[in-house]
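2024-03-11 09:14:02 DEBUG pipeline.ingest accepted 1 chain
2024-03-11 09:14:02 DEBUG pipeline.ingest length=141
2024-03-11 09:14:03 DEBUG pipeline.predict start
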Amino acid sequence: MDNFTPLSAIGGGALIGLSAAILWVANGRVAGISGIVGGLIASLNADFAWRAAFTAGILAAPLLYRAAGGALPDLAPPASLTVVIVAGVLVGIGTRLGSGCTSGHGVCGLARLSPRSLAATGVFLLVAVATVFVSRHIVGV
C-alpha cells in the first residue's frame, strides 16, 4: 500500500468540494456523478454541454495531476475482470435504487443537511464495510 499523502488528499477533497459548489451555484445542479453521466448518455438535450464538460474534467484531472508532477497510483485491479465487471454493474444498480451515488449523497446531500442523503451515505458505508469483509475474509477475492 502506498504511503498516505495528506496534502494531495486535502487538495483533492477541496477540489471536489469546489467543483460541487460551483456546479450548484452556477447551474443549480447536484454534482452526482452517476446522474451527470447517466444524463449524458440518455439523450442529447440542453444539459448535454455542461454534463460533457463536467465529465471531461473528471477524466482530465488525473492527466493534469500527472503533468504537474504528481504520481499516479497503480491502476491494476485487485480482482479478476469478471469480478470488476460484476461489481460495476452492482454499483450501477445501487445508484439507481438509491437515487444517487456517493458524490451526490455523500458530498452534496450531506452538505445540504439532507436526511435522505445521510441515510443513503450510511447505507453506502455499511455495505462497503460488509463487502470488504466478505471479499477479504470469506470469499478471498
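2024-03-11 09:14:41 DEBUG pipeline.report The radius of gyration is 17 Å.
2024-03-11 09:14:41 DEBUG pipeline.predict end
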